[in-house]
Amino acid sequence: MVSETMAPIKSTNLPWMCAGDVATKEVFFQYARLVAEGVMLAERVICNSSIEMEPETFNQFPQLLPIGPLLASDRLANQTGHFWQEDSTCLEWLDQQSACSVLYIAFGSIANLNQTQFTELALGLELSNKPFMWVVRTNMVISFPDGYVERVGSRGKIVSWAPQQKVLAHPSVACIMSHCGWNSTIEGLTNGLPFLCWPCFADQFLNETYICDMWKNGLGFTKDDQGIITRGEIKCKVEKLLGDKSFKDKALEIQEKVTSSVRPGGSSHQNLCNFIQWIEEKGCRCHHLYVKNVSNMIEYGHLAY
After folding, report:
1. pLDDT tens digit string along 11-30?
2. GO: which molecular function terms (predicted)?
């Protein structure tokens, strides 16, 4: 624990601890160390967060300037920065559902489930008896249980990729089941949705801690002895989240706080204005700003030419 007022971090959930074998863990650890050293040299570090989301962190580290939440989309909520083909028919399907009734399930562009876990998730969604929209990427090497698609019928909408920000803003969506990547976390918060947390690696476990323990706008899952989240556990947590109005109330409370921070006069808006003023005062000497070390990124395979 860095501070008694900050969210605790389990040593097993540190980003490099989820990286595979010892050699891979070492690479990730050294990269994290280089980034940390760079941050310590910076006069300012801007963050896609807000004081309202992480007050203890920003009080502890005043050189961090939160200017968010910033979303990866244009003013029409069209997503940018990804390469997957969106299935816009899901919005038409949402139009046909009752208000605040749909479970939205998405695990980002990288996270994968093995066949056993995928099957349990599929059957858990079926047992929930709730309408759901599930993003199943085309690069996921899995198969649905026999007869599954026919059984769930029109109650389930399965797509390869979705216009997520438009989906989350739709009045039919009740909650998001997420891997808790930071972008998805910010998008869920901005749209006032409670979370069902399914973290897979890196910072996602810490984000789950914030959602479940600090903000209290979501629930996590408990794995069985084989490390599997069972269909019964999924059904139970869906019912608990949607059956307790306090989760939605908390989500709406946080939504108001984080969206107000980027409006004129808000904390993030003011931080951005101050940052711009600081750059102008620095002029050509703003090389002290923190930028990622490109040579190190090339060395560890994060850039290609």
Report:
1. 877 878 877 788 988 998 99
2. UDP-glycosyltransferase activity
Q: DSSP letter string over 191-231?
A: TT--EEE---STTHHHHHHIIIIII--EEE----TTS---H
Residue 79 amino acid letter: Q
Q: Exposed, middle or buried: residue 287 (CB in 10 Å: 0-12, 13-18, 19+)? A: exposed
Kindly give, in sequence order, each residue whose CB lies less than 8 Å from that of residue 16, ignoring residues fewer than 6 positions away. Answer: 25, 26, 28, 29, 32
Q: What is the pTM of this model?
A: 0.84
Contact 268, 50 (CB under 8 A): yes
Phi, psi of 53 (to 5 degrees): -80, -40
Residue 219: closest CA among 228, 209, 229 = 209
The predicted-structure confidence for 183-205, as pLDDT tens digits, reads as follows: 999 999 999 999 999 998 888 99
From 88, 94, 85, 93, select the one nearest 76 (Cα to Cα).
Answer: 88
Residue 79: predicted pLDDT = 57
Only one residue has tokens 């249980």, namely 145
